[in-house]
């Protein structure tokens, strides 16, 4: 079968897919955490792999940066490859005073400055939210591990270099926990196609405090996020 962006055949991809933004991070995850690994996609170097974790089949694939990119890949996984759950695993910039570097944020909802939802021709604004069963399980796993975490609203922005300096403060004023670039489109695709989605975010920098992790510290936070995500498969 395959698509313009994915050369996999139906059956090559597991029911649950972990999606980091970086395809090389997908490769690292597959090589580090999975066994019996097979590469199912290399089109545009958006690498995808299927393997086993504790005997259960799971896939991992890059999403690229931004909502247009994850919008394409997640839609195809749901619609053409019978994927049931996609778990975004990525980094985010904190907007809340009570969130520290290396904390984990579970995106209960995803605000956005994108017009991704215009395609649905809704008579109002759509509120993209996570699948509750995945969210509930993720929180339970985080508590068992003793991981610092927050659950709440995030903002998925189309803009990385925002020329409006007050944008972050405006979102923070509404209680938004952090900013990233993909969750809202993923949640909307899941809603439209009646599938499951959750974004698990590791805080790599604090937008308002101006602090950020070193590469070594980022790896530690990533490992905790991965330990939670893998148990959701």
Automatic annotation (TrEMBL):
The record marks 218 as: Important for catalytic activity. A purine D-ribonucleoside binds at residues 5, 180-182, 204-205. Keywords: Glycosyltransferase, Transferase. It is an enzyme of class 2 (transferase). One of its GO terms (cellular component) is cytosol. Phosphate binds at residues 21, 25, 44, 88-91. Catalyzes the reversible phosphorolytic breakdown of the N-glycosidic bond in the beta-(deoxy)ribonucleoside molecules, with the formation of the corresponding free purine bases and pentose-1-phosphate. PANTHER family: FI09636P-RELATED, URIDINE PHOSPHORYLASE. HAMAP family: Pur_nucleosid_phosp (MF_01627). This is Purine nucleoside phosphorylase DeoD-type. It comes from Oribacterium asaccharolyticum ACB7. The gene is deoD.
